[in-house]
Specification:
Shape: rod-shaped
Helix content: 25-40%
Radius of gyration: 39 Å
Largest sheet: 6 strands, antiparallel
Number of strands: 12
Strand content: 15-25%
């Protein structure tokens, strides 16, 4: 195998073997034979494996791929997280409506009629409630949200579904749960109702009037 000077890269004459002292006839420098095998005509080679510059090139080439993958993951994960967070806020409304329905059933068993106000039902809004709760337009028929959330702007069509009489009731809850223009509106009633998708919902079961999560998608 041809051997070369570790200093100038010039070809060397055959030497005794590893460990021998070699003098380059071109540059006049001396060195031990083990160094000879580690060089070639173009300078030193790595002692095995890939040169460091090759690893740098590979790493730099992989950076855009990693960034692209992270971008795709974020594009999927972040909207799903936001949707889950907003959906979790609806738990307050549905839980409260179920409590209203249970209280109305209890009131009807004891009085033979339904209650026409939250005061008569003995129902109060949960602490720091985000939703407004509506039985009608009369005093005692509305529970406002906590001050930090503000009052949701309900349309006349939404409010028209809220009613309470001795014979029947429909209670609503409403809130802006994701800071857009859509107000999340749910209801519960003593009679079957049609939800946002046009499907019939049984009495006492919360139903969607405007589902802000799906409407905003």
């Amino acid at each position: 195998m041809a051997k070369f000077c570790v200093f100038c890269g010039a070809p060397l004459a055959p030497v005794a073997g590893p460990g021998a002292v070699v003098t380059c006839s071109s540059c006049g420098r001396s060195f031990h034979d083990p160094s000879v095998a580690q060089r070639g005509p173009n300078g030193p080679a790595a002692k095995g494996g890939m040169p460091a510059i090759a690893w740098v090139v590979i790493l730099l080439a992989g950076v855009p791929v990693v960034i692209a993958v992270l971008g795709i993951v974020a594009a999927i994960a972040i909207p799903n997280f936001i949707r889950f967070k907003v959906r979790s806020r609806q738990v307050e409304c549905k839980t409260m409506l179920k409590a209203v329905a249970a209280a109305q059933q209890e009131f009807q068993r004891g009085h033979g009629t339904f209650a026409t106000s939250f005061d008569a039902l003995g129902v109060v809004a949960p602490a720091e409630n985000r939703y407004a709760y509506v039985l009608g337009a009369e005093p005692g028929q509305r529970l406002e949200p906590a001050a930090r959330w503000g009052t949701p702007r309900l349309s006349g069509a939404d409010l028209s579904r809220a009613s309470a009489s001795n014979a029947e009731y429909t209670a609503l809850c409403a809130a802006n749960i994701d800071n857009d223009e859509v107000v999340d509106v749910w209801g519960v009633s003593s009679k079957p109702q049609l939800d946002q998708r046009g499907e019939e919902v049984a009495p006492g079961t919360p139903f969607t009037i405007v589902d802000d999560v799906t409407t905003s998608e």
